[in-house]
Design a protein that fits this description.
MFS_Na/Anion_cotransporter, globular, Growth Hormone, Chain: A, 5 strands, mainly alpha, SLC17A9-like, 17 helices, single chain, about 600 residues, 3-stranded antiparallel sheet
């Protein structure tokens, strides 16, 4: 008699012979003494010194699963155990399984149950020996029992029990990993970054709503209100470049986690600081800017490690859409909380959400795939794409970075982009109220529309960009196409805005302007990781510093222009800078890696 090893689901009757489901491998061993129960095994192992063969089959007493008889394979050569699907070896069998042997010996033909099994030889081939039958038993499924001996190779681990197949009709009944266990780890990082940016803008815009009851309570003048609003940018500017340096040196996980905790604490402390006095409030708002200033560089660093270039645009678009939706959420919920619980509730409620995010971030996030024990080897290969993991930077090659024309294209284009974007987002309520004659309630509701439009079109642009890359279009051309849409689209609709005469058309032009602006997420905002993934945090810190300065200067310059001129002049300056940015970007930018 010879043995094989196969386990498959079938009916409980031997009449089901000839059918079997998926076969799996297992490598196991057992000592010849003391007697041990066979583990379930699941790979055909044919051939022995006597020339006969059979199949090792099983019957489950827990779920009525019975394996069927297979025809013996005569004079078959030994078949080695394979290594496929080795990851399933640790699954435990929930029901008890008894194993039997089908003998080709005409004298002892029938089912035999081994009491002891010797191990496998070093090559992975079963080499059993047999003794005389000790007992006979009638029945269709059980006959004589044999003892098997051989060279011992250690005890069978409990984890070696594997069942492939389900009930008699459904091989899918076997337990498989839950959907959240199959969710790619890199997308877990993207989703967590999305929610961090959602909280970032929720905590930022709540002051624009709460400042109204606060100024009434504390008697602040418009100049004081402007000072409070601008104090956020004192800290925000300070940590743009520093945040990039820290992220590239210590890892994006540490820096982004620090930023969320820092600005969440500052948000919660805002009501206390306001009651203590104006200087305390200005310091707390600047501290909040410090925390939010590291968010974008740290996010850019961690995604440069986790996201392959084929998924870069849509991943970044999803994360940045968290900012837009955070503004929508903050503007929508702040009035409700203030009316029900008072203005401090906005800061307490929004700030406390950071603790929930930080807990998940500490449990699930790592700065790179090489530090994450949960990421699979297949996903790691997909992320790296054949490249090697490099150590975090110990020093920043400033001279090399600033000598690259593509870096300056990022800086100049970010400035031109943010000039128009900050003007529209900052002055839009005033434009709706003064030019279109909407009341303040209508202006507030319409202010949400551009953020929603940007959230939608940012993700559409991301999918378009990644599709173009997948179809073989060069990364350089993809970045130039997407950013050209992000520049020329707003330029076109702002030009039309000065020509329209109806409020409906004006709102439509404004929404289309911001929607096309969102394509920049797949242009310049993705380019930092293209040209220098190791220095992605520093590069974004550099360009975003220019972008923040554009917001500060552009907002102030708009007020000056409106004192001397009209809204048409405001739009013309923005259109001019959009055109300058388009030229600079298409001449000097690249999608190739220029910084190693």
């Amino acid at each position: 008699m010879a043995t094989g090893a196969v386990l498959s689901s079938s009916s409980s009757s031997p009449a089901a012979a000839g059918k079997h489901d998926t076969m799996m491998m297992i490598s196991y061993s057992s000592t010849s003494s003391p007697r041990t129960r066979w583990p379930v095994c699941s790979q055909l192992v044919a051939g022995d010194r006597n020339g006969g063969t059979g199949r090792h089959v099983a019957r489950s007493t827990g779920n009525q699963l019975s394996a069927h008889i297979q025809q013996p394979l005569l004079n078959s050569p030994p078949m080695r155990l394979c290594n496929n699907n080795a990851g399933l070896l640790k699954r435990r069998l929930l029901s008890r399984v008894d194993c039997f042997l089908l003998s080709s010996d005409p004298v002892t033909n029938g089912w035999q149950k081994p009491r002891n099994l010797a191990g496998l030889d070093s090559a992975g081939v079963l080499q059993p020996e047999y003794r005389a039958p000790v007992r006979k038993q009638r029945g269709d499924c059980r006959a004589e029992q044999y003892e098997m001996t051989g060279a011992p190779m250690g005890d069978v681990p409990a984890e070696a029990a594997v069942l492939v197949g389900g009930d008699a009709a459904s091989p899918e009944a076997v337990s498989s990993p839950a959907w959240w266990q199959q969710f790619p780890k890199r997308m877990t990082i993207v989703v967590l970054c999305f929610f961090s940016f959602l909280l970032c803008n929720m905590d930022r815009v709540n002051m624009s709503i709460a400042i109204l009851p606060m100024s009434a309570e504390f008697g602040w003048s418009p100049a004081t209100v402007g000072l409070i609003q601008s104090s956020f940018f004192w800290g925000y500017l300070l940590t743009q470049i520093l945040g990039g340096i820290w992220a590239d040196r210590f890892g994006g996980k540490v820096v982004l986690g620090f930023g969320v905790v820092w600005w969440s604490i500052a948000t919660i402390l805002t009501p206390f600081a306001a009651k203590l006095g104006l200087p305390f409030l200005l310091v707390v708002r600047a501290f909040m800017g410090i925390g939010e200033g590291v968010a974008m560089p740290a996010m850019n660093n961690i995604l440069s490690k986790w996201i392959p270039v084929s998924e870069r645009s849509r991943s970044l678009a999803l994360v940045y859409s968290g900012m837009y939706l955070g503004s929508v959420t903050g503007l929508a919920f702040s009035p409700f909380l203030i009316s029900k619980f008072g203005w401090p509730s906005v800061f307490y409620g929004f700030g406390s959400l950071g603790s929930i995010w930080f807990t998940l971030w500490q449990l699930k996030a790592r700065s790179s795939p090489s530090e994450d024990p949960e990421v699979t080897e297949d996903e790691k290969r997909h992320i790296l794409g054949g490249s090697t993991i490099k150590e975090p930077v110990s020093s920043i090659p400033w001279k090399l970075i600033l000598s690259k024309p593509a870096v300056w294209a990022l800086i100049v284009s970010h400035f031109c982009h943010n000039w128009g974007t900050f003007i529209l987002l900052t002055w839009m309520p005033t434009y709706y109220n003064q030019v279109l004659k909407f009341n303040l309630t209508e202006s507030g509701l319409l202010c949400v529309l551009p953020w929603l439009t940007m959230a939608v079109f940012a993700n559409i642009g991301g999918w378009i960009a990644d599709t173009l890359v997948a179809k073989g279009v060069s990364i350089t051309n993809v970045r130039k196409i997407m950013q050209s849409i992000g520049f020329l689209g707003p330029a076109l609709f702002l030009t039309l805005l000065s020509k329209v005469r109806t409020p409906a058309m004006a709102v439509l032009c404004m929404a289309c302007s911001q929607g096309s602006d969102a394509f920049s997420q797949s242009g310049l905002y993705s380019n930092h990781q293209d040209i220098g993934p190791r220095y992605a945090g520093v590069l974004l810190g550099l360009s975003n510093t220019a972008g923040v300065l554009a917001g500060v200067f552009g907002t102030a310059a708009t007020g000056y222009i409106l004192q001397k001129g009209s809204w048409d002049s405001v739009f013309q300056v923005a259109v001019l800078l959009y055109i300058v940015g388009t030229v600079v970007w298409n001449v000097f930018s690249t999608g190739e890696r220029i910084l190693e």
